[in-house]
Design brief:
alpha+beta, Alpha-Beta Plaits, 2 domains, four-stranded antiparallel β-sheet, two-stranded antiparallel sheet, 6 helices, 6 strands, about 20% strand
């Protein structure tokens, strides 16, 4: 299992690395790395390769919100069933079962506050199992998926060449 974790850690940190680089970093043969990655993809352990994008720099004005839900479970449906239903909405970026006063936490993206309000009022609040909602608007993101969105400081040192 350690071999798999070593490979996954490298891929999670930088999915653009090719199998040769992963082999070099992990100490395993390139063939073993290629084989393991294929197995991990086919088994669903690796779900997707992803880029972290700073949309503010692109100039896109997306609105992100975190919506906490209290769920009233009935005899037929558990958290997994309601989460699966909510996950099917395009606006939902993530959904998590959480502890505390609420049961589920959603992160959603819309084009405006009006879009987010419509999503909550028309798609979420109307679900039978949803007892209440609490919406928090994201004002600024400083770190996303382990990647800092602060400006990288450029080195002020002069390059020395022979």
């Amino acid at each position: 299992m350690n071999e798999i974790c070593d490979i996954l850690e490298i891929i999670e940190h930088d999915p653009k690395k090719d199998t040769q680089e992963i082999a070099l970093l992990s100490g395993y043969s390139e063939e073993k790395v290629r084989s393991r990655i294929k197995e991990l993809e086919e088994s669903g352990i690796i779900r997707k390769y992803k880029a972290v994008i700073d949309w503010d720099k692109v100039g896109e004005e997306y609105i992100y919100a975190i919506i906490e839900l209290k769920i009233n479970l009935d005899d037929r449906a558990g958290y997994d069933n309601i989460a699966k239903r909510i996950a099917s909405f395009n606006e939902v970026r993530s959904i998590r079962l959480i502890s505390g006063d609420h049961d589920l936490s959603l992160t959603i993206r819309g084009n405006s506050m009006k879009d987010v309000a419509f999503f909550v009022a028309e798609k979420i609040a109307t679900l039978d199992q949803v007892q209440s909602t609490m919406t928090h608007f994201v004002l600024k993101t400083y770190k996303e998926d382990g990647v800092s969105l602060f400006e990288m400081e450029r080195s002020k040192r002069l390059v020395i060449s022979p």
